[in-house]
Amino acid sequence: MIELKLEVNFLHIRFIYNPKSGRERSQEKVSNIIKYLFEDGHEVSMRFTKQAYDATEFAIEAEKDKVDRLVVVGGDGTVNEVVCGLQKSDSKIPVMIMPGGTTNDFAVYMGLQKDDWDTYKTIVSGRIESVDCGKVAGKYFMNVGACGILTDVAHNTPVGLKSAFGRAAYVMKALTELTPENLKPIKMNIESEEVSGEYISYMALVANSKSVGGFQKMAPLASVNDGLLDVLVVREMPLSDLVTVFMKIKAGEHVKHPNVMYFKTKKISFSSPEEEVELDVDGEFFGTLPATFEVVHQAINLLV
To answer: In DSSP terms, which residues pair with 148 in a beta bridge?
Structure first.
């Protein structure tokens, strides 16, 4: 059997690996890809995350070390940290994402769930696409910032449930939160060029890609390279209507409901004058409102 090898320059490829993300398959996949890389003469180095913000520091270090490629193995939170490091160091190192978390919203949206050989080919000779990211209070994000009901699902879903059911765990957790006791509308001030005013709402999110919380059409018109963020605001409505809206998310039809506001913007601010409202960024708790979101156009060089 003839073994096919790619004709490429030798590269220094660094893996940033969150060992807590994913299952045994991730470990096997990484081992196989490193084997391919070594066989073709590439230099490989590894960094394993142990605590919060390790991935950010590793991304900053990669720019200092002038590595040729970064491979991020982990979930949305790990990707988020790497993006923060790349932005802080003004780095344009091409990045490959190997999804290893529960939902991997951004990687799924970008079509990065590939087999071992295709992943290898993408790392060494894939097409580079410049994609946007969002920014809020000095933190960068690839996927979403959100507040209100359901937005804490990602960081409040038990680890055991995520391990057993994968992305379905988030849907299960979300359904348990759609109860009259949890429906506490928020008086929210919104300021943007497109929409401004005070609204009584259940939820607001600012998305960079279509896929949020395992729902692949949460922001159905979103694009990662249009220089805009997609804003979804679910205004106060009866519980029966809210359940209907929730059930239409899979098809992307929820944005047509009269009490759902959906629009694009470059910059938007949220505040709540009467209560403390928690903010979630890429599946992690990130303080409380007020918050101002803005897009960073063509921020990251992504290998696709």
So the answer is: 203
CA quadruple 83, 86, 89, 92: dihedral positive or negative?
negative
Question: Could you give the residue numbers annotated as active site?
Answer: 284
d(C-alpha 252, C-alpha 242), whole Å = 15
User: Residue 3 has what pLDDT?
Assistant: 47
Q: What is the largest CA-CA distance in the chain?
A: 70
CA dist 148 and 278 (Å) reads 7
Burial (CB count within 10 angstroms: exposed 0-12, middle 13-18, buried 19+), residue 171: middle
Listed in order, strand segments (DSSP E) in the chain are 12-17, 43-48, 69-74, 95-99, 128-136, 139-141, 144-148, 186-192, 196-207, 229-235, 260-265, 267-271, 278-281, 284-288, 291-303
> What's the rounded Cα separation, in Å, for the pair 215 and 1?
43
Query: CB–CB of 127/99 below 8 Å?
Result: no
- Are the C-beta atoms of 66 and 41 separated by less than 8 Å? no
Number of Cβ within 10 Å of residue 53's Cβ equals 11
Could you report the per-residue pLDDT of 92-136, keeping only the tens digit for each? 999 999 998 767 889 989 999 999 999 999 999 999 999 999 999
Q: What pLDDT band is residue 274 in, cutting at 50, 70 and 90? A: confident
